[in-house]
Amino acid sequence: MEKDTRTEMEKLKAGEMFWNSDPEISAAKSRARALADRFNATTEDQPEERTRLLKELFGECGDDIFIKPPFYCDYGFNLHVGKNFFANFACVMLDAAPITIGDNCLIGPECGFYTVNHPMDSETRVANYVYGEPITVGDNVWFGGHCVVLSGVTIGNNVVVGAGSVVTKDIPDNAVVAGNPARIIRYTR
Length: 189
Fold this sequence. Notes:
The chain contains 4 helices and 19 strands.
C-alpha cells in the first residue's frame, strides 16, 4: 500500500479526514480568526473597511455583503456568498468544507453553519482528526434567528427556515421549514 504524502491542507480541500492540529491548518485558522477579530472590532461608521476585510477573508463575496459583528469562521477561504448577502449578529460558519450561499440571502441572529464533523471512533476523535461536508444554500433564502445548518445539507431556492430550526437534511425549493429537526410545514408557491 502506497503512503499518502498529501498535506493535511490538501486532505481538507479534498473533503477527506485531516489532522486538525497540523501547523498549516492552525496557521490558516489563525489568519481567518485574526481577520474576523479585525472585522469584529470595526464600527458602524466603517462600512468600507468592513467590506474590505470580508473580501480578504471570504473565498468569494460581492461588494454588497453586509454582516453585523461579531462574525466567526474557521478558514474563510471556503466561504462563498452571492449578491446582496446579509447576516445578523453572531453568525458562525465552521468552514472545514465549502459553504456556498446564493444571492439575496438573509441570515438571522446567532445562526450557525457547521460543515465540520468528528469521527465516531473515539481514538481518532481524541487524536484531533476531523472532516468536513459542504453546505449549499440556493437563492432568496431566509433563516430566522438561532438556526443551525449541519454538514452535507443542500437547501433549495426561495426557502424559509423558521427561527430555532436545526436543518439536518436537504430542503427542496420553495419550502417553509421549522423545528428540530427541521420539517416542511408548507410551500411558498
